[in-house]
Specification:
Four copies of one chain form a homotetramer. With 131 residues, chain A is an alpha+beta fold. Helix content of chain A is 27%, strand content 41%. Chain A has three helices and six strands, in the order E-H-H-E-E-E-E-E-H.
């Protein structure tokens, strides 16, 4: 399973002394992009061509809050849904094995604002994952 | 229905030229806190007493992306769920009436890390909304 | 003098209970862009044409920290420096008149990465300010 | 010299396709806190005791912009200034050796809002650096 190692930075924490809820979406996005990057998909480059993988839904279950300096892994598991959608099941796990956030995001690939086939490199990854 | 008027700031937009997905959670949180503030609940003050309304789940359906300078409203509708949970149904609506994000977040009130009764002012708001 | 009214949002505050130091740069940028927008300069649009007003220096004197819910004004005063540079003198002033941040930023206009004349609408604003 | 290795994350980039100017202050803060942490100073813990190292000035010279996925080092060099102030000279250097940002920040140690002696562990670090 693909995963990225990260560590909480103080500026990501809010008044409550823990990582702000919105920041977990940053972590999840970063791990998704790193995953896609590993599949040969460069988001910044695709954006200049009018191709975007747009998020259409995000679900996050917050199990326990990350604190300053906590180390954690963000995992990415991809599941195909038709030709244009990608479902990402992701977890944020503290280095002692505790599950902090359980998330599911759904993206649709678009070209110039319209749904478009997922890039081949990504479909290949899907097929590989399936078999 | 409670609502807060906001406008997209350029720094909230990412490489794709639209508001970054995580930023909508900032907008939603800000509207929730403004709503709670109006009920006489001061989050910053409560945090110093060990009282936190912790998010346990967030669901966001991204309908269309906000762009630089777009003006929008963030609405908040609260529904009680037992004595310690608050469910917030929120929408982000562009000034031309277009629904951009449809969201639902669930919070649990805690004192020193343990579930605790919601503040009375909030319960009163619930009861008022019910009747 | 150009100014934008804003209010602190809880998510902009950090562990120390006050607005995080980096966030003031967001406020300053937002006010600069609003100022430029008023001069008919649309940053998002210019970016797609390869034109960017790139910051080359920022100086911020932090006088006192903004706290949750504080209301404040961000002022913008522009001074020309040659044909390609714009100097912005900016202040962040709390609604009781207290100066919170005194800042100075210098930008260079670029086209495809090279210094380029400032947009005419901006030069006109300079000339107007001078006379 | 103390340094922290980091990599640009896509969400840190703005409409202009490069790291947003405010984000460099996040990088600089993170490196300062990591440096102080190494000296045995825990910011999150100190904040709960009313002790804060408050920034009073930041100067950033932006030499060239970081782009998506760029790897870089953030260096920290500390210089004492009296008993309550700490001056941090910091650089952000891309992995090919190119200087991207040259910065200088000044902090004052405070206890309950008033200037206070720097923590001993930090003074010791100063003295060590001097000799």
């Amino acid at each position: 399973m693909f995963q990225v190692s990260m560590q909480v930075r103080d500026y990501e924490c809010d008044l409550q002394g823990v990582v702000n809820n919105a920041v977990y979406q940053n972590y999840l996005e970063h791990a998704r992009h790193a995953f896609l990057h590993e599949q040969g998909i460069d988001f910044a480059a695709l954006a200049t061509e009018g191709v975007h993988l747009m998020l259409i839904r995000a679900e996050l279950d917050y199990k326990a809050p990350l604190k300053p300096n906590d180390r954690f892994e963000v995992t990415v598991r991809m599941v195909a849904e038709g030709r244009t959608k990608a479902v990402f099941e992701q977890q944020i796990v503290r280095d002692d094995g505790k599950l902090m956030v359980d998330a599911r995001t759904i993206g649709v690939n678009t070209r110039n604002g319209r749904p478009a086939r997922l890039p081949e490199s990504l479909t290949a990854a899907f097929d590989e994952a399936k078999s």
